[in-house]
Design goal:
This protein has about 170 residues and is of the alpha+beta class. It has one domain: Alpha-Beta Plaits (2-Layer Sandwich). The protein has 4 helices and 4 strands. Strands 2-3-1-4 form a 4-stranded antiparallel beta sheet, sandwiched between helices.
């Protein structure tokens, strides 16, 4: 019988349909953060790091489940829940997300930390801000210990279910 070791985490990228700047509107970015937090509490996965950019979201997620199907289920539910809510708010119907998403398994806590550092630099690399701490919808401040993030995160090595500061932002 073969045993499966759970990947410590996955780097996930979700793109908006047609690369529309859906999250340039702060209330949509805040709605995404609230949707992610609600689903995280319901399904029990970990959110290690995230950044919400105008046309995409990058996440590092993890779970104890060695069967990676939890990730597919969580992403499908997250995309569906957010699309329903944002369409209802805007009074329109239509696609919100690209069909495809990128998923990259991460080897260990050090790999998660390296990827989180790169993920947090995305707003700087995109020319949106001069320093990661200035981007509102990111876990950078919680990772660096500089303050709260829009939603709590699970820092690897900070206790199996330990979270760092987060404040859910209304939008």
């Amino acid at each position: 019988m073969q045993t499966h070791e759970a990947a410590p985490g996955y780097l996930v990228t979700l793109w908006t349909y047609g690369l529309r700047p859906t999250f340039a509107e702060p209330r949509n970015a805040a709605l995404f953060c609230r949707s992610l937090q609600a689903l995280r509490l319901r399904l029990g996965f970990r959110v290690h790091a995230y950044v919400v950019l105008p046309d995409r979201v990058r996440l590092i997620l993890g779970a104890e489940d060695p069967d990676a199907r939890w990730l597919r289920d969580a992403l499908q539910r997250l995309k569906s829940r957010f699309a329903r809510e944002v369409n209802a708010r805007s009074g329109r119907l239509g696609l919100v997300w690209q069909d495809a998403e990128q998923r990259l398994p991460l080897r260990d806590e050090a790999d998660i930390a390296r990827r989180a550092e790169i993920l947090h630099r995305n707003p700087v690399l995109a020319g949106l801000v001069e320093h990661p701490r200035l981007w509102r919808f990111s876990s950078y401040r919680a990772w660096s210990g500089e303050g709260p993030a829009p939603l709590p995160i699970d820092i690897p090595g900070a206790g199996r279910r330990g979270s760092r500061a987060g404040t859910l932002i209304s939008g």
